[in-house]
Design goal:
heterodimer; A: alpha/beta; two-stranded antiparallel sheet; 52% helix; B: 480 residues; globular
Chain lengths: 343, 480
């Protein structure tokens, strides 16, 4: 028995060492990735996501609002934190992480949609969390309630990479090609999707002819708390319902009920709510690639329009101008410094 | 609890340590520990069905004791009937109720009648086909006076629920397993290492070979109408590898685990795909079930001793029942019938016991004749697997007709990943071939190597398991 125990331990030691080393290697590679959600998370955790204007929401935020246009027209720094396929639960988690690792934004443009206050069961694109999971209790709290990872994945090295073919394939490709950073498909978090129109709506209608959104009461409470927290922190929020192709607007049968929740919250917390459901953009299919998502052209047009509208909102404009002054001041300092250095 | 889960990776060492270091001085405590562990292992899946397990155990425990005491032949028969009716009744209700009901309704409708019956949403308790057969063998053996009933309830309950083989076999005979619960167990080093090696090989077969093959087989079978003959044939090949890797992998893990607790379980697979005829295949495939049917059904029916018609009848009965045991679907019954048709010519021409030894014993390569026989047997098996895997008989027939069409000679339409899976299957088949004279492929193949090389082989298998794990699949035989 002693021999068995001794040899088992001797056999296991390199295995455990390998588990830690491989875990570190894989996670480290992903922590340098700029691809998809990795890029955004890495910017957040590395404190590189400071922005005066933060855009929150789901994939609709991610593909609808271009921070570069905001930057150019408002002379303010901006970053799009839209998280693909996720509802408010994880949008809020991202907000918390942003505040913890970066300076707080002055203004949040929060793109709300029919699914903001829903909580999905599965952890969509779960691989985005892989590099930060080991022994991370906070992350476990926020994503542990989804189907996808078990407690073992957070507490035993390497286990969570088990069976993650695609992710490991990408890592090896990055290592072999020597391209650690890997290409990015998002610019300041924004992903312009110049895709042709798809028949997603037809498929969705056929599959769910009488689709009704089921609001998650916990998410509603969380959303209200978030609005309160932002008010206490002095962060201005604008709720925005970004354009949605008109023919798809009858897909969710209880749409009015959902819109009413956002309108009521906006009134209750005295925050502006910009609804672009009936905007001229929503009537033109050429600006969309499916009923819920604008293409690159549509997104740029919409961002300019939205900025114009937001600028005209008194409370937001006030905050923006104070940020703008700071921005200009910092910019001039920077310019003076570089002038000084070049002299 | 699945063998290929982290739950088991934690559960197993805990039970192992308690068994050898805490309970090692008392056999009864060791048995009790195994019983508790087995109930936890089973309850992890669904604790509600523990009552069913306990009920089955109690019935056969008391029937066994009463059979022992009873001398009256009629009463003995009645007691045995009680055990058979209870066990097969449970199996029949949970596994076959809806099948019989649906077929009854269809028959009535066919003849213009009308019957008002509703299917029930019955959950099939995992392993019910296995443990009911195991307890049945106990009662039958006592009835036949081959075994004396035990009065030690803990030992008997542990025999019924012994966790390594509870949910998917091997289906143990009481004559082999039960006495082991009364003997002091020793764990020597070579036995433990052998057990661990067999577990490692079983995990490789299941996680790397079966699960990767399953992904391709599922993709092809679930969309069979979209594919041509060559792709469907390849899909059937992947399924053949999947079911072998899955089930024999499970058996290897079960046998290896039992060895680590000082138990010896019967062999369940003996390289069946290297068989030279169907009789040999059935001596090498799911041995514990085949021999169960042989001992408790085929021989009592008269076996192959009677005339021609009796031989044919008994062969069909055993294969049809075997098919039906796998599931309540006509596809399984046809699978059984096909195998009976394959087997009968060998039996009737007295050639069913020609190939008793492993092929090419002592040689590296088979002769051309042996190779062609292996290929033919494997091809026949593939045809039968189509019925086993297809959802309906119509689907199976459609797949078969597409395979035997001109589209068989087109390039298969599959993703590039298929090459990786074929490569892994290649490594697997070569290793199995090299180790075919052993109990399991890597039992002795690498043992003669120096320790560093041997360990490097083990680490490589661990690495392959990690890197090429298929998508988490449960074990196929859990559904039977």
């Amino acid at each position: 028995m002693k021999r068995l125990i001794k040899n088992s331990i001797l056999f296991l030691i390199p295995l455990v060492l390998f588990m830690y080393l491989a875990d570190w290697f894989f996670s480290n590679q992903l922590k340098h990735s700029r691809y998809g959600e990795y890029g955004v998370w890495n910017d957040i955790y590395n404190g590189k996501a400071d922005a005066d204007v933060a855009i929150y929401g789901s994939s609709r935020a991610m593909v609808h609002v271009d921070p570069l246009i905001i930057k150019d027209s408002l002379r303010l720094s901006a970053y799009n934190f839209g998280i693909n396929g996720h509802n408010f639960w994880l949008q809020y988690f991202r907000h918390r992480e942003l505040l913890e690792h970066n300076k707080k934004p002055r203004v949040i443009i929060h793109s709300v949609d029919m699914f903001t206050l829903v909580k999905r069961d599965d952890l969509f694109q779960m691989e985005q969390f892989l590099p930060y999971m080991l022994y991370n209790k906070k992350l476990q709290h926020w994503i542990g309630s989804y189907k996808g990872f078990s407690a073992y994945d957070f507490n035993i090295p390497l286990v969570r990479y088990y069976g993650q073919y695609k992710t490991m394939g990408k890592i090896f490709k990055a290592v072999v090609t020597g391209n650690k950073a890997a290409s990015t498909d998002r610019s300041l978090g924004f992903a312009a999707k110049d895709l042709p129109w798809t028949d997603d709506l037809v498929k969705a209608r056929a599959q769910f002819p009488d689709y009704r959104v089921k609001v998650d009461s916990v998410s509603v409470v969380l959303f209200e708390n978030y609005l309160k927290e932002c008010r206490n922190e002095g962060i201005a929020i604008a709720l925005v319902y970004t354009p949605e192709y008109i023919e798809g607007q009858d897909f969710v049968k209880n749409r009015a009920e959902i819109m009413n929740i956002f309108s009521s919250l906006a009134v209750k917390y005295d925050i502006p709510f910009f609804d672009y459901s009936d905007d001229s953009i929503s009537y033109k299919r050429e600006y969309f690639y499916n009923a819920s998502h604008l293409n690159g052209t549509g997104a740029r047009l919409f961002t300019s329009k939205m900025i114009h509208d937001i600028k005209n909102n008194e409370s937001i404009a006030r905050l923006m101008s104070s940020s703008n002054e700071q921005y200009m001041h910092q910019a001039s300092l920077k310019s003076d410094r570089s002038k000084y250095l070049s002299d | 609890m699945l063998f290929n889960s982290i739950d088991f990776a934690i559960f197993f060492p805990v039970v192992f340590i308690l068994y050898w270091f805490v309970a090692n001085r008392n056999l009864k405590i060791q048995n009790l520990l195994l019983l508790i562990a087995s109930y936890i292992f089973y309850g992890w899946w669904d604790w509600r069905f523990l009552s069913l397990l306990l009920f089955s155990t109690l019935v056969d425990y008391f029937v066994g004791i009463m059979l022992n005491k009873q001398e009256n032949p009629l009463k003995r028969k009645l007691l045995l009937t009680l055990s058979i009716v209870t066990n097969l009744g449970l199996l029949g209700f949970f596994k076959y109720y809806n099948f019989f009901l649906d077929n009854l309704v269809e028959s009535y409708t066919f003849f213009g009648g009308e019957i008002n019956a509703r299917s029930l949403n019955v959950i099939l308790p995992v392993g019910i086909s296995f443990y009911t057969f195991q307890t049945l063998s106990y009662s039958i053996d006592i009835y036949r006076r081959k075994l004396i009933a035990t009065t030690d309830f803990v030992a008997f309950a542990t025999f019924v629920t012994f966790f390594p083989q509870l949910v998917a076999g091997p289906i143990e005979r009481a004559t082999n397993l039960l006495p082991q619960f009364f003997k002091k167990r020793e764990l020597d080093y070579s036995q433990a290492i052998d057990g661990l090696r067999q577990i490692l090989w079983g995990l490789f077969k299941k996680i790397v070979i079966a699960d990767n093959s399953a992904q391709l087989a599922n993709q092809i079978f679930n969309n069979s109408a979209d594919y041509g003959g060559s792709t469907l044939l390849l899909g059937t090949f992947f399924f053949a590898i999947q079911i072998y890797g899955d089930f024999s992998g499970y058996s290897d893990i079960a046998i290896g685990t039992a060895r680590l607790f000082g138990f010896s379980l019967m062999r369940n697979f003996a390289f069946p795909y290297f068989s030279r005829d169907m009789a040999e295949f059935w001596r090498r495939w799911h041995i514990s079930l085949s021999t169960w049917f042989r001992d408790y059904l085929y021989i009592p029916l008269g076996g192959s001793k009677g005339g021609l018609s009796m031989k044919i009848r008994n062969t069909f009965i055993i294969f049809l029942v075997s098919g039906f045991w796998h599931g309540a679907n006509w596809t399984f019954i046809i699978w059984g019938a096909l195998n009976a048709i394959y087997f009968l010519p060998l039996l009737l021409s007295n050639k069913n016991r020609e190939n008793l030894d492993i092929v090419a014993k002592g040689r590296l390569f088979p002769s051309l004749r042996e190779f062609s026989k292996i290929l033919l047997t494997f091809s026949l098996t593939l045809i039968a697997w189509i019925f086993f895997r297809a959802a309906t008989v119509t689907e199976a027939v459609s797949i078969l007709s597409t395979i035997f069409s001109a589209s068989l000679f087109t390039m298969p339409d599959l993703p590039l990943k298929v090459l990786l899976v074929i490569g892994l299957i290649g490594v697997f088949i070569i290793t199995e071939w090299l180790g075919r004279e052993n109990q399991y492929a890597i039992e002795k193949v690498y043992v003669t190597f120096p320790k560093p090389v041997r360990w490097a082989v083990y680490y490589s298998i661990v690495f392959l398991i990690f890197m090429f794990a298929g998508q988490g699949q449960t074990f196929i035989y859990f559904q039977f």
